[in-house]
Amino acid sequence: EEQLVIKVNDTGIGMTDAEQADLFTPFYQADSSISRQYGGTGLGLNISKSLAEKLDGTITVHSHVGSGSEFCLTMALYMPARVRWITSFEEISASTAKELPSQCQRNLVGEVLVAEDHPENRELIKRILERMGLTVTAVENGQDAVQATLDHQFDLILLDIQMPIMDGEQAIHIMQATGITTPIVALTANTMKHEIDRYLKQGFIDHIGKPIDRSEFSQKIASYLDIEMHEEVKLPEHEFAALKQVYIDGLKAQRNTLTKQYAEGDIDGFSQSVHMLKGTAGMFDCDTLYQHALKLDKALKADRVILDSQLVSNVLTEIDDIVCHSTP
Prior knowledge:
Blueprint: E1 3-9, H1 17-22, H2 32-38, H3 44-54, E2 58-63, E3 69-76, H4 89-94, E4 111-115, H5 119-131, E5 135-139, H6 142-151, E6 156-160, H7 168-177, E7 184-188, H8 193-202, E8 206-209, H9 214-224, H10 237-263, H11 267-281, H12 287-301, H13 309-325
Parallel strand pairs: 4-5, 4-6, 6-7, 7-8
Antiparallel strand pairs: 1-3, 2-3
Helix pairs in contact: 6-7, 10-11, 10-13, 11-12, 12-13
């Protein structure tokens, strides 16, 4: 089997054997001071090695402290019929440019990655997709989503925008760097025109607004995956009721978090919690809570010097009312 071998040498500080052993691990950097000084996520070499392996090759490193490093990329060379090697750049310019045949659009087959940090939202979306006959991988943050795309190929990716550890906008940039062409859709409660335009410029093919309309959601997913929908996809009532009860059971903890953040003046944390509440309440048909959270979220984004305490009270009171009247 023929291989292409590319070696790159530097005269840098070099690495120990222990550092070389972990060098291709995701989110690893041999010297933590590098990320503080120059930035970066520690994903570059892991992504590069993953791409090399997809080309039936690999990347290796040989290094000595104080005397630099040598990286070696190998990849398999496959020679299709009527293809020959060239030996100089002149042969390229002398050849007649030929238009490549257009590729037929690939029909997607139903492998979906969902990245959503709220557990009940994530489970609800997963159940809806599975009811459509799709295979679903669900993760809770952008970092896990990036790793999933390195380990497996998907036909569609749904990325929540606001997530801990790594958000959706950071995740899509890293995914694009790996060369994936999978359609990526933004899941977001940020539905202002300038926000949507920003997502589209970043490479998202579309957005699905929160709270998600379950009927519209299934129709959109079907269109992305080229699946013919003969009837509306609905969760059985008992399944949705069980998921909703789990959501309601968690509202008390969310209320405590909101109260603590508001009392301590943690406006950034409070704003994030309200934004999440807005995106989840409507998903589980808590419409009054959604409306109160929506108004409070708008007020927080308006960056007012003094926040109307009645808006906060309305949200907390509605949570109390939902919890009080829920059936365990």
